[in-house]
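Title: Comparing notes on inverse folding

I've been comparing how different people in this forum approach sequence design from structure. To keep things fair, I'm posting one structure and asking everyone to reply with a full sequence. Here's the target:
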């Protein structure tokens, strides 16, 4: 119901407080929080097609849910279900090859299996299971909308190459699941037109097309302009995320990353590092620095940090899998403020570079987004570690912008026009030319060597390798 109330609120704002002429909107597409799921009973179809425009939407849908809660990506309570699905599908590598990811607690398939296990009667009363994105499109057009391959791939249920539900994955998750899921259709598919409810209540046109919605990550891929090979984006937020365009579905056999469908019809990679800005803040606060101090210190400490390495696992890490928190330091004292500042940023950038090699992409351009992307010192290390040009983007809500651009592209397809994705994003997603940070060749070579050292430290910390002291010595003496 909170999703519905939020949509009510957005529409109320557009109609009453914005200067947008709602009748001029030709198409709309949505961005929904990826992996979240919504469970509807048999009354939903009739209720959504007979809405009263005199009443708020949220007041009319109280009886349509077979499950009152909507588990989202923050719920990691499905470890047992992940193991069961993995075993049924012959192990994590086979599951990743089929669906694009190993079984993840935050993914929708394991959540559905938990629902089936813990509330079998409610599961039996469920007629339709939507993702947040497809539920949004359903609310807009008043009839059940399909799921697109971008969001569908974040369920551990979709055959990545066929872009259709994988029968073996469905059978491993819950009985009768095929009949409860909307079909998978291409991202540019038109789900329908805005229902009369929105026209009569807020003044939209009933001729407005509703394109399929997608997940926030696939929408962000478009919103930062990743529509061709050689480009990746790094979002420096609470967690740090690396995502990029893939022309083919290259799957990470090590299970560290994900591959989803892209709204372009291609694929996207995504790797999440939990210890992002929170780790940088921990180091900053421990040293008593401001963010200006943090950036200044980055410029004053030597690249490579004289072989002093930090593994910034302040919280259990996703990539690599670190089940228990605990910061590890090699050749570095916790009281060394400048050394720790450089160490945390170098560690984060080297971890990103090392754990994204499976993508097989020759990266020449990185678009940096997120709050910490304003720190030029961090972006300089990013450029040198990855050996790529780094640009800042004049993009705020990249997921919302990506959804709007998807709506335009779907409208063009519906009108029979072959507008390219480069044309779609032109003038909307342009890197700031003056923001370019070019990699320094000498530092690129230094980090190429240091990345191997970082790997040795990581393996040692995880109990899989020898003490890396001998590797670090050459840098400490420099």
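Reply #1:
Here's my take.
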């Amino acid at each position: 119901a909170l999703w519905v109330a939020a949509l009510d609120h957005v529409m109320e704002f557009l109609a009453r407080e914005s200067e947008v002429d709602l009748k001029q909107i030709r198409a709309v597409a949505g961005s929904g929080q990826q992996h979240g799921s919504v469970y509807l009973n048999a009354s939903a179809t009739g209720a959504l097609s007979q809405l009263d425009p005199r009443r708020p939407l949220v007041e009319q849908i109280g009886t349509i849910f077979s499950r009152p809660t909507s588990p989202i990506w923050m719920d990691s309570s499905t470890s047992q279900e992940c193991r069961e699905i993995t075993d049924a599908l012959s192990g994590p590598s086979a599951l990743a090859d089929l669906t694009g990811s190993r079984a993840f607690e935050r993914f929708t398939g394991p959540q559905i299996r938990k629902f089936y296990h813990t509330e079998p009667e409610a599961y039996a009363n469920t007629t339709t299971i939507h993702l947040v994105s497809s539920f949004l499109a359903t609310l807009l057009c008043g009839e059940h909308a399909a799921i697109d391959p971008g969001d569908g791939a974040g369920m551990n249920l979709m055959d990545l190459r066929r872009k259709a539900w994988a029968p073996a994955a469905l059978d491993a998750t819950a009985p009768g699941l095929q009949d409860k899921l909307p079909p998978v259709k291409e991202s540019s598919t038109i789900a329908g037109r805005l229902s009369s409810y929105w026209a009569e209540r807020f003044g939209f046109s009933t001729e407005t097309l509703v394109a399929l919605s997608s997940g926030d990550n696939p929408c962000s891929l478009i919103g930062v302009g990743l529509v061709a090979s050689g480009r990746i984006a790094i979002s420096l937020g609470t967690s740090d995320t690396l995502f990029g365009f893939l022309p083919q579905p290259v799957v990470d056999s090590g299970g560290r990353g994900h591959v989803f469908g892209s709204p372009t019809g291609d694929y996207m990679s995504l790797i999440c590092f939990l210890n992002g800005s929170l780790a940088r803040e921990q180091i900053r606060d421990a040293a008593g620095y401001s963010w200006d101090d943090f950036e200044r210190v980055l410029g004053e400490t030597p690249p490579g940090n004289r072989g002093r390495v930090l593994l910034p696992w302040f919280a259990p890490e996703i990539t690599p899998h670190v089940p228990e928190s605990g910061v590890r330091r090699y050749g570095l004292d916790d009281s060394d403020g400048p050394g720790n500042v450089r160490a945390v940023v170098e560690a984060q950038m080297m971890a990103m570079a090392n754990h994204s090699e499976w993508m097989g992409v020759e990266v020449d351009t990185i678009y940096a987004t997120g709050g910490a992307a304003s720190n030029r010192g961090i972006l300089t290390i990013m450029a040198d570690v990855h050996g790529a040009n780094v640009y800042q983007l004049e993009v705020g809500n990249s997921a919302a912008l990506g959804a709007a651009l998807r709506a335009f592209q779907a409208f063009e397809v519906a009108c029979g026009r072959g507008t390219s994705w480069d044309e779609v994003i032109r003038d909307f997603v342009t890197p700031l030319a003056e923001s370019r940070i070019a990699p320094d060749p000498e530092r690129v070579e230094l980090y190429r060597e240091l990345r191997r050292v970082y790997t040795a430290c990581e393996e040692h910390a995880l109990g899989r390798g020898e003490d890396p002291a001998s590797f670090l010595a050459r840098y400490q003496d420099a």
